[in-house]
Design brief:
The chain is an alpha/beta fold.
């Protein structure tokens, strides 16, 4: 019998709070849940200002007021910025993005127009070159399909972590085949990935059963997962002079 690959996650890097009013937990509750699940760090990444119910930019500008450690867990202060157009522009200015510890960039319906594969490819290639972006958020949506072969190589070259998003299995089910394809190409091109809950309620922090199942099915190498160890996380965040421990 084949040995099953085990994936360990020490940091959930994409979580929302009540600051995005379609989410239901506080930062303290996120940290408490992360602590209960044995995580070392949790990313607080509320929606960027272009989303209809997102916090204002002052919320992100003031995040450094929070302590680094809450409930014994390192809280990384970040944002899930919105990609706005096919030039890959984001909804937050570089000054704020440059001060945040974690920047996820995602395409969301109602904000990013739907486009052709060529248009979405151009958008992601621009995001791949944006030095402020750390993580490529849930990019499997069929309405934003892109040239996976070309763009995943650009993500790998630029050291962007491609997100495998547990929440997609609940709310973006049509993405699931694309997520698998994306993971296969990350394996092929040695692109780093990040396994995140995208939780909008603290009970979901640190739970990734569907991501793990898919990764096992494709024999995904655990060493490419940036949030699988403190060492990998520190290596990933070194360009920003951040260590989680
Ligand atoms: Zn949301
Ligand atoms: Zn999102």
């Amino acid at each position: 019998m084949k040995l099953q690959i085990e994936y360990a996650i020490i940091a959930d890097l994409h979580c929302h709070t009540i600051a995005s009013t379609h989410a239901y937990s506080t930062i303290t509750e996120l940290a408490q849940a992360a602590s209960r699940r044995g995580l070392t760090a949790v990313g607080c990444t509320d929606h960027g200002t272009a989303m209809w119910d997102a916090p204002k930019s002052s919320y992100f500008g003031n995040l450094n007021d929070l302590p680094d450690i809450i409930e014994g867990v390192r809280v990384l202060k970040g944002v899930e910025a919105n990609i706005m157009d096919f030039d890959g522009h984001l909804d937050m200015n570089d000054d704020i993005l440059g001060r945040l510890e974690l920047v996820v960039a995602s395409m969301h319906g109602g904000i990013m127009p739907t486009g052709t594969v060529d248009e979405c490819t151009a958008a992601w290639l621009a995001v791949a070159e944006n030095p402020n972006v750390d993580i490529i958020g849930h990019s499997g949506s069929p309405e934003y399909a892109y040239d996976y072969e070309t763009v995943i190589q650009a993500f790998a070259k630029n050291g962007k972590a491609v997100e495998l998003n547990e929440h997609s299995y609940a709310v973006r089910k049509t993405s699931i085949p694309n997520c698998r394809r994306i993971a296969e190409l990350c394996k092929k091109y040695n692109a780093p990935v990040s396994i995140n809950s995208d939780s909008h309620y603290h009970e979901w922090v640190g739970l990734f059963p569907n991501c793990f199942k898919m990764l096992r099915e494709i024999d995904f190498p655990p060493e490419l997962v940036i949030n699988s160890s403190v060492e990998n996380m520190n290596k990933f965040l070194a360009k920003k002079n951040i260590r989680i421990v």
